Amino acid sequence: MQNPYDEEYPIGDDDMLAPNVMQDFNSGIPLDAAWIDPRLLQGYVHMQQSLPQTPKQMNFPMPHLMNPPQMMNPPLNFPQYPNHQQFLFGANPQSDPGFGQPLRVVNSGPIIDKFSQTPQPKPQLLFEPSTPTSNPMPTKDNSPSTLAALTSKSLYQPEPTLQASQQVLNEILKYQHEQKEKVESIFSRQQQFMKAPHHDMYRQLVQEHRQVKEGIQALQNSLNQLFKSVILEPLDLQRCYWLKQDLEIQMKQLDILIAEISQLTSQDQSLNGLAGLVILKHPFPLVINKSKEVSEDQLQVQLLTSTSLPIQSITQVKATMLCDASYGKAQPQKMIDHDLQSLDTNTRISKFPVKFLSGTKKAPAYLKFGMQLQLQGTATPIQVESSSSIPLVVITNEVQWEDSAGILLKREAFSSGQMEIPWPEFANTLQHHFLRATRQELSSPKRILSPFDLAYMHTRFFAGKNQISQNEFDTFWVWFGKCMHKIRYQRHILSMWMTGLFYGFMGREDVEATLKDKEPGTFIIRFSERQPGQMAIAYIDTTHPFKLSHSLVKPEDTAASKRTLPDFLDSIDKFMHLLVLVHEGGGRPQFMRFPKWQIIEMYCGKKDSSSSDGDVNSGYTPLK
């Protein structure tokens, strides 16, 4: 399959530079540090002495990189994971005589071995056909106050016991917290060395650089294998994404330090590679509406430099948007607003409240940042750029959302052109995009794609296979993309999803098990398996012999904003008691039965006595 994202758009000098806006650096910046595993830097002394500054010259210290998510900083009382050193770095302190010595390059394969031994939940019915619905609750207790209390609570509750993946992530975060002072020491030592170079110190710093780089690569490999091997909880997903970004920033800073010290033995005395811009915070991947603005707290860029770069002044930072779409003669003159921002001289961070002025025709776009540094003793400023951001798509109407969201999901899941990826990797990526699409945060979701939702999709669309192909994804997105569009845009559906009034992802077998032995008039709402994006209602008929029936909610049943799903439910007398999802944790989903009028009252829908006829040939029963 041809990759539609091959075309690249170079950045012109006129787009990146703003030399007319300059700032003067003549004040110090507090010293702070990034993190690297403490074992990589054993025995090095932490130096915190003040170094004199040359007038009109600023020696940039190590940057203040992102703090971990607040809930994990500082990490306290971490459970012990057996041989976590071996898990992270392939070294066992009991069996490896080299443990504690400079890190050697090893295969981090034990991660896959360990997680392959962790039993994954097999796709299964939510309830066995021979078993009644779990924990049926008395109808008399299902009062309006009970419903209000339930729908105000989050359906997602993290697992109370730590899994192996959580323990490993805790250990990584623990090392990260301990690393900051030691990395600060490395930066301080190199800053002092550049003022008075010494051969022995040079060799020591070169060895440190190599060891630290190997350590970062080992951590990156560990995170990647964890992501591919285990379906993670949302909070662990947040940790993984944050750690991945932080390690990339560390690697960039380390490359700058390596470039600086390499100049001492190289004939190339150019200043390229001695500074760089990194994207510190971002909301991507993202489908965003034209004319909408990203808040400045969501998009931030930071300047990293070597220890001795003699910066005299700087330009503002300029953001440029690159797009894969072909506009022809209709190429917009300007695609983003608020694209030029000043750099804070204390934190070296620029915040961008970017506003998108033009759609991208459902094609991926990227942000790239650039600035100029004027150095002492040089006439020509040096150009500093960031790498491209994670992609985004700017849409002009909601009809474009489904295709755009599918493009971004597929691009992230099958990065680097893989034709197949492991199921856990796809499930983790899908969860991330789903929570963004439903406007939830990884740190505090209200309702996620539960293990039962994922097991249903895995069985229904991927036949339970371990590897997911691009073609299988395309088939899946034809159905799931329309479901997501319905949840995101149709009035009341997102609220009903979040509160468990609309169950969503359930096969007919599970529906039959759930409604078995229920009273006539009991119903549950799900997505149709045969009609992508349409809702189906399974119910126990109110006429003898009280059989279970399935009816399709057709588009005209909830047409326009004046007739919503609650209005439609109110118009059908056969729907009397709704099964509401009240718990979706580690056990089986649990439902509570509520009278329909309590649901209608919550949304104040206008009653309409008309009814809709079903299609006899569609597999759904007409509603009379």
> Which structural class fits the helix and strand makeup?
alpha+beta
What is the arithmetic mean of pLDDT? Answer: 75
DSSP helix fraction = 25-40%
Tally the helices. 15
State the gist of this model.
With 624 residues, the chain is of the alpha+beta class. The protein has helices spanning 13-16, 84-89, 110-116, 144-151, 164-195, 199-229, 234-262, 401-413, 423-437, 451-462, 470-489, 493-498, 508-515, 565-571, 596-603, and strands at residues 22-24, 275-281, 286-289, 300-305, 311-315, 317-323, 336-337, 340-341, 349-351, 355-356, 365-375, 382-385, 392-395, 420-422, 467-469, 522-527, 535-540, 548-553, 577-583, 590-595. Mean pLDDT is 75; it is low at 1-67, 69-141 and 605-617.
Structural key phrases:
624 residues; alpha+beta; five-stranded mixed sheet; 15 helices; 20 strands; elongated; disordered N terminus
List the helices and strands and how they pair.
Blueprint: H1 13-16, E1 22-24, H2 84-89, H3 110-116, H4 144-151, H5 164-195, H6 199-229, H7 234-262, E2 275-281, E3 286-289, E4 300-305, E5 311-315, E6 317-323, E7 336-337, E8 340-341, E9 349-351, E10 355-356, E11 365-375, E12 382-385, E13 392-395, H8 401-413, E14 420-422, H9 423-437, H10 451-462, E15 467-469, H11 470-489, H12 493-498, H13 508-515, E16 522-527, E17 535-540, E18 548-553, H14 565-571, E19 577-583, E20 590-595, H15 596-603
Parallel strand pairs: 3-13, 16-19
Antiparallel strand pairs: 1-5, 2-4, 4-9, 5-11, 6-8, 6-11, 7-10, 11-12, 14-15, 16-17, 17-18, 19-20
Helix pairs in contact: 3-6, 5-6, 5-7, 6-7, 8-9, 8-11, 14-15
